[in-house]
Structure formats: C-alpha cells, structure tokens
Design brief:
5 domains; 6-stranded antiparallel β-barrel; 4-stranded antiparallel beta sheet; Elongation Factor Tu (Ef-tu), domain 3
Length: 413
Amino acid sequence: MGPQPVAIVGVGSALRHINAAGPSAGGHRHSQREREDGVGIWNRYMERFVDQAVPASAPGVTQPAQDWRQRLLRHATSGRGRSLAIVALVLAIAAGAWFWRFGRGPEVAAVAVTRGTAVEIVYATGAVEPVRWAKVASLLRDRIVDICYCEGKAVAKGDFLVRLDDKEQRAQLEELRAREDYAKREMERVSHLLGRGAATTQAYERVSMDLRQIQALISVQMEKLADYTITAPMDGVVLRRDGEVGEIAEPGQILFRIGAPRPLQVVAEVNEEDIPRIAIGQSALLRNDAFAGRRLEGTVREVTPMGDAVSKTYRIRIALPDDTPLIAGMSVEANVVTRQKTGVLLVPADAVQGTSVFVVDGSRARRRQVELGIRGTRAVEVVSGVAEGERVASPAPADLADGARVRVVEPAR
C-alpha cells in the first residue's frame, strides 16, 4: 500500500524544513531548531512509510524481515539516506507526472459498431407556400387612398382591394366626355346641313372621324382609370396585406397575397451538384424551429427543369399532407431521402478517416481499412472491415498512430 495523502503533505513539510537549513535570500542561515524540526518530520514520515511497507508486529513477519526493516529505517533516517531518498522521491514524482501526461496516450471515446438504417440525403432550404396563390401588385406609382383591411378573410374574384389616387385621371376623362358631347352635336348639325344640300360629304366625314377619335381616347382613359382600382385576381383567402392608406405604391410593389390555405407545399432550392440525385416521389424530412420535436414529412412533387446559373441552384416543390402543422410563409430545412438501406453496419461519421477507422483493442487503437457505403451526416455504412460490436474511436484524433496507446472514456451523450 502506498503512502496516504497526509503522509505526502508531511514529506512536503519535511522537505521545506530541511531545505530551510540552506542560505536564505538575504544571505542568512535559518536556525538549528528549524532544521531539527524538519529532520524530525522527515524521520516520523519515514518510520510511518517503513511501517506500512513492513509492519513491525504483523503476523507472519520473519526475523530476517524484521532485521531488514531496521536497516531500512536506519538508512532512511540517516543524513545520507535522507539525501538519496529526497532525490529518488523527486525523480519518482517527475516520472509519474510524465507518464500521466504522455505515457497513457490521448483520451478517445469508444463507440460500438451497430446495425441500423443508412440514409443518404440531399439538403435544401425553402419556404412554405400555398399550391394556388397570387401576388397582387400595383402597376402605377401613386398614393393609396383606400384599402381593404381583410387579412385572413375570404374574397371572391373581382372584390375590391386597393384604390389609388385617380383625381387627375378622372378629370381627363371628364374633359374627353365633354369633347365627345360637342362632337356629337357637331355631327348632327353637319348631317342636317348635308340633307339640305348645304354641306359637303367631306365635312360630314371629318366630324364623324373626330367623334370616333374622341370615343377611342375615352376607352383608353377608362382602361387607365381601371388600373387605379386593384381587385382580387382569384377566389381565396387574403394571406397578407402590405400597404396602408397614405403610402405611395410603386410599380411592381406587392400589396396583397391571396391564395387557398390548403394544400400547401415547400418551395426549396437545391445545389446543382445534388440535383441529379433528386427524383419525383422521393420522401423529404422537414424541420422547423416552431415544431422542433415533431416529425414533418413531405414528398417531392416537382423538379424545375432549368436552374439558376447565378446561384447555381435548382428549384424543387415538396407536397405537404393536409394535416401538416406548417403555415404558409414558414421557413424550413428539408432533407430529401435519395437512398435508404436497412440492417447495415453503422459507425459514427466522425470515426471515419478517409477509408479507415481506429478499432479500440484494450488500451490500443488499431487502424483498420474499411469499405464504405452510404454516407450520412451522422452515421456511415460500413460494407466490410469491421464486425458488429467492435468499438471504434469517435471522433478519431487526426494525429493518432496505428497501435498507439489510448485512454478509453465514455462517449458524450
């Protein structure tokens, strides 16, 4: 049995007292009494240490062992014995510290090879949208004078949504209608004169053409005036309103979003290097922070044939079931399952270094070449190279050598 912690403290105290006998920082020597105190502490410690190693009165202790005990005690408490013991103690402490720091090897978590389902996925991000919906935008730049406060309410095609300031356009329309009245009266007068032979056919055709021109301008002005009143383009529910009375509506500015609340879909973007693995009908696992603990699923419904050369992405549409808790406008992360195999050997993804893993064998780590299959984000399929139940280092240190000594610890949960 080794020395107890209190005995180690005693050694430290004895060393301090013995060393205090040497020169101090001020060039003076400590008192003889301090030295004697240190020697006494050392001798008592060594007596205790020798007694623990060879008890004086333990059953079965022979006379030769007792004689050896006495010689050991005399040597340890002598001046020369104390010096040798101190050097040996310092060396032992240094050797123990080196072994604790370097000799035991790095800590590694050992994870057992298990059987399970290997899944290959393609990651995408997108947003939830209705399958049928429309963005209602302004075609003109003018001030909003009236708007429908009907978010969340059902509207029919043609229902009023927004009216822009159209006073100037209405004034122009009134002017054109006044000119139309005058042209009609002038045409009646010329027609009456033509019947009496007092006007020519050319004069009649001229006033007739003027009337038709004014009427055409009235039609154009009425079309312009219609653009100042924005109506619902379809039956549905007002999903969102972006505009207030008094604001200036810009051309192309979206003021309303109208659509059917069900069915919903996810419109997501996929990197071009992953799009060859996407196919219609594949299942997708969805994640949203509002429903972090729920399993959300969908099915790939459409893949856009042409991608975006600037962002290097392709658009896909994922159909959602009618009972989905997702709401239009939510952002989601999608993992499209492109391949899936059940009952295969799995190791953690961070245990794989290239095409090898480190198998933990007792206190040693052995590099093992493996054949890999489906690579997932958390687990990787191993086709051959390891057996079920073997333990691998996870994560495997980058500088770990084949056959290196390691300290096995429990993996983090």
